[in-house]
Amino acid sequence: SPRAQADRRKYAEYMQQALEQTADLTIVEALATEIKIEDDKVRAVVCKDGSMYRTQTVVVTPGTFLGGIIWIGDEKWAGGRLDEPSSAELSQSLKQIGLELGRMVTDTTPRLDAKTCDLGKLQVQPGDDPPVPFSFMTEKIDRQQVPCWITYTNEKIHKLLRDNLHRAPLSSGQITAADPRYCPSIESKVVRFADKKQHRVFLEPEEESIKTIYCNGFFTSMPRDVQEQVLKLMPGTENARIIHYAYAIEYDYCPPIQLKSSLETKKIWG
């Protein structure tokens, strides 16, 4: 399916500017803690600072923040994303409304300092030439493109991961939610596909200036020391400096059977 590498920082700046310039839109930064309901209808949203916004409609898009817990090996702490708080109160509010919540988990990859990666020894993975836009309203993309690079795991890495499965919360049973179907952790791959001698990892720049590398394919909840050892054994990352360690995050979600086709909840109007 179509996929694009976007500069994270530039995209965030662009979207913030787009929102600020949208007519009749007021942006408020606050932590929502409660949705007030009367007669099975939405009436207001209450925030952590005590403010309340009366409304007839609420769109909840919490991502991984509802009751989020971050794991790196045996380490765990509340968080919705790295260095950002989770929202336990909103989870409780949704339960009190009468919605059933389940538990899901996903994991991330380590972020590396691009200057410390030996990208020159790796296979270059260029994008489409010419790049194909997603939108029919875009005639062409003429900006300079940045490639990705391909590396591979090996049998030494696979043995290291198998020897440390008891230290990964996704494998040890500390996290009971199911592993993601489409982005499985590297420790899951070496168990599910034990016959494979290598797995491909894409080293993807997170910005046009190529400062940070995202290791697509090296999703893991392994402890820090194991992540470091894996990188030392993988071509191109032998001397890489880790900017952010990979982590797993488990969080609450609302099973979609409780939603109408319009995505409004069946139980509550608004």
From TrEMBL:
One of its GO terms (cellular component) is cytosol. Its cofactor is FAD. One of its GO terms (biological process) is tRNA wobble uridine modification. GO terms for molecular function: flavin adenine dinucleotide binding. Pfam families: GIDA. This is MnmG N-terminal domain-containing protein. The lineage of its organism: unclassified sequences, metagenomes, ecological metagenomes. SUPFAM superfamilies: FAD/NAD(P)-binding domain. Residues 2-268 form the MnmG N-terminal domain. Keywords: FAD, Flavoprotein.
